[in-house]
Amino acid sequence: MTPIPRSALILGLAGLIPFLWGAMTVLWPELGLWGQLRMGGRFVGPHVQLFYGAVILSFMSGVLWGFGTKATGRAATAGYILSVIPALWAFLMTGGGPVTAAMNLIVGFLALLLLDWHFWRLALAPPWWMHLRVLLTTIVVLTFLPVVL
How far, in Å, CA of 73 to CA of 51, rounded? Predict the structure, then answer.
């Protein structure tokens, strides 16, 4: 097993902060009110999670596109096509209210994990990639549960 590089792990975990903060402000309304008064409604509760979730799915499309550049021929074409799915999903599926959008983002992040596995299986992603992605995806999905339950 190849260990996750320290910088990738630290940055990946830091990228969870908006998801964790959003979940905390849903679970503890007093914290949500405090955050709303100091930062505005967009930066608390499901609002921060949904907006940031769409941003991260779009970012991950770019990451997958980069993996696709390592392939050639039809595999590269397939990689490019697959890489745009997370961004399109985020764009098309985050309307309809916070519960529906959060459920759709959960599906998007789980589907992204399948795409990560596909690129990793083709050796287009680094050897440690799936260890990092499973960890981060698990936490992201868990942070959406207070919104959908």
Answer: 35
